[in-house]
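The following record pairs a protein chain with its ligand, pyridoxal-5'-phosphate.
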Amino acid sequence: MTVQPAAYRPGPHSQNLISRDDDIMSGSMVPRYPFVMARGEGSRVWDVDGKEYVDFAAGIAVTSTGHSHPKVVQAIVDQAQKFLHIAGTDYYYEVQVRLAERLTQIAPFGDDPARVFLCNSGAEAVEGAVKLAKWHTKRQNVIAFFGAFHGRTMGALSLNGSKTIQKQGFAPFVPGVYHVPYNNPYRCMHGREEATCQAACMCADYIEDVLFKRLVPPDSVAAIILEPIQGEGGYLVPDARFVQQLREICTEYGIMLISDEVQAGVGRTGKWWAIEHFGVEPDIIASAKGIASGMPLGAVIARKDIMSWPPGAHGTTFGGNPVSCAAALATLDLIEGGFMENAVEQGQFIMDALEEMQAHHPSLKYGRIAGKGLMVGAELVLDAEKTEAKALRDAVEERALANGLLILGCGFNTLRFCPPLNIDRATVEEGLVKFEKSLTEAEHMHGLL
Ligand SMILES: Cc1ncc(COP(=O)(O)O)c(C=O)c1O
């Protein structure tokens, strides 16, 4: 008989801080994981009791260059010594313009020039992108996807189709949002077999055949907002044809295609923008998270002729903070200078390792392993019927903490592997060993082994 490991309890300093936090911080923000950060370096972090962890979470795919990369820190210090804030909505400053120039150079709009609006977060970037689409098209409606996560502000929240808890108690939502199925042959929302769905996905057809015929005239739709790889919803990599069909629909009906690259963008998947994997050019991009290595920054990047709103139509006090812009410039240099290639290499290594583990781990055997670059998901299931292994997934997260690994869940039963883009092979291997140990323990606890 296997001895069950004791439930993980962090050290005394961690426990002390956790009880202070629980007493004073908003109850909506109770962290899921009892890890109390003391410091970080590269792809490793330490808690306040001195315990070391491999970081496969990167603060939800944010610390793209690792924790406190010296070049990013230096850029922050240099800028902080000059000035911290001046408000780009009223005054000019160079670091913001330099960042915007840089972002337009990497924007995936073919030869079309671009413009940039800088803000503070992913939700704000999404809000800005949708406002821009509405302003430009003079239309009211937006199409979003089941499984989507776009943020917590009322506009972004209205677009979410991921988990009921995020929306419960906050109705009414911004009107004019229509949710449609997202391509996922592993769990086809039209109830079809995996192979049938793979061969001919019906999700984009649904927009034209059902939505446009029965509910919403296409000329009232301002935008389709798409996560090119669904993040919070479960790390789903869609079929290229699905994304291409969305582009075709947008082009045919004059609808803006917004690519929400908040989680998947800025090199994480091995290309600057995840939508590039599908050979598709969007009209508007929302970016944040990894763009500034952890400093708060968001960006709306759009084709120049689309971002034509007049002065005062949209603005921000803190957006494009000069220190965040300096951090972003250093981040983009590092990602371009080799981290993006590294993401491809280490991501493939993780995918291969997970596929190898399928032979020894019942919860992975019939599961779904998918990803691009360092955006890799492993969906755990209990059996060949794909019964969601939610409690087991939660147990893996808990055992991982005990074993010195930070790893995050997403969807209902998926684990995400989204470490810093410069993680080295030795640290990946060490993290995978800790992951497999945690998986084994969790499978024991749930009677699968
Ligand atoms: C795809 C996507 N869009 C938007 C957001 C919201 O970003 P933020 O939490 O910075 O507002 C997130 C956050 O997880 C995200 O993954």
